[in-house]
Amino acid sequence: MTAGDAATGRRVRERGLDWDIVSEPVDVVLIGGGIMSATLGTLLHRLQPEWKIVVLERLSEVAEESSNAWNNAGTGHAALCELNYMPPAADGSVDPAKAISINEQFQQSRELWSTLIGEGVLDEPSTFINATPHMTFVTGEKDVAYLKRRYEALKGQPLFAGIEYSEDSRVINQWAPLLMQRRRKGEPFAATRVPAGTDVDFGALTRQLLGSLESDGVEVRTNIEARKLRKQKDGTWRVSYRHALGRTPGTLDARFVFVGAGGWAIKLLQSSGIDEIKGYGVFPIGGQWLMTSNPVLVSQHKAKVYSQAAVGAPPMSVPHLDTRVVDGETSLLFGPFATFTPKFLKRGHWWDLITQVRFSNLFSMLKVAVTNLDLVKYLVTELAKTHKGKVESLRAFMPTAKDEDWTLLNAGQRAQVMVGGELKFGTEVISAADGSIAGLLGASPGASTAPSIMLGLLKRCFPDRIAEWEPQLRALIPSYGEQLNPQPALADEVLTATASALQINR
User: Fold this and answer.
1) Could you report the per-residue pLDDT of 102-157, keeping only the tens digit for each?
2) Domain that holds residue 285
3) Which of the 8 DSSP states describes residue 266?
4) Domains in the chain: how many in total?
5) Which of 126, 300, 198, 116 is nearest to 505 (CA)?
6) Contact 30, 37 (CB under 8 A)
7) Per the UniProt record, which residue ranges are transmembrane (predicted)?
8) If we measure between CA atoms, which residue out of 446, 456, 447, 506 comes closest to residue 480?
9) In a domain, 282, yes or no
């Protein structure tokens, strides 16, 4: 690069266009400025500090889509209250295996965040994580019986130590008064509570992680929209992009590419031509919250309270009444209520749903449409709900809810994975056989388990390096390579240490 080229690149950055003239491939390009890219970038920068890493974000700020605090529930997903991780079998039995697995993954998140706080990479814990009990509340004899079986299956598991169960209105009233006020007499109900739950502002966490990376030499380029990925003869990937404001085109070559762009990931992975993405499609589901900042209501509810999903509803639409802490301000959210738009991102394109269609995924997507008519019915019902109807749904949780106390807030877009004729719920990493490119599709538990997901990605994409990285990974996540639940003493040690570092309940 000549002195003139360098000066041009500097002037472009100063005008806010955030792009350079680059003559050599960079080591890593992370597409999408959300929690996934922030987490992977943090790990890779620690493991290979000499690598050149570039983050590309299509919006003017990072963490403005799924990672934004108002676009998700902020639940530190540890399966403490989410019933969809332990569905009843045909005989009514419940298996805690998946719930334990999700909890194990969240403990890795807690450990990583604790380490980064100790090193000054992250700010005070309260800027992104706050203690908030996790509860489950159900009504009706069938669901009460199920919840009791779930409690019995979990109470002896080390990672669920402290879980409480009650059918006593007086006890539940102490836990969450808004649930009990004017509750119908004779109605069967039950609740579980885990004091060690958390509320997480993933937007703040993402901004802190990327801010630290940027201050240490990682390039974070905003207003840059990645458009196409092409494999070069030398094995590198050419990332074609355009500036989101001036439409200025450009390219950037990279040895490794991660696509962490929410629903946009499917389009970029399809453009790459890798065989592994064939057959995949996504279905976008939006959401809305009812929100209140009424101090009288907020003061009476400090918990995230989940219940059973409506028939046909996706797991991400399980109704819950949540305490949220964003920028130091506390409010309550209830929902989510499903909405529909063909966009894959909140600020996506109207043709996203159609332009993803390929011969390889067409029949799978059609099968999903035919075999998920209950989901279609659910979406139609949700779309027909007025503000009054949404508050009426809230009254199943909070009988005293008043229309005027609650306002509607648009949440983020989720892109549910479709593959093999099935609609999948969760997150899936798609990677090329040579490990040179990977991307993430799906939704919950997503952000809460980002470190675990990215550790799995490192093993898949860098198998020849993972052994030499293990000492550094253990420095970041002391229990790396271990399972906590089968080791009660280790589980207790880790939970106690991270609770202290994060200033949350044990």
Assistant:
1) 999 999 999 999 999 999 999 999 999 999 999 999 999 999 999 999 999 999 99
2) 6-502
3) H
4) 1
5) 198
6) yes
7) none
8) 456
9) yes
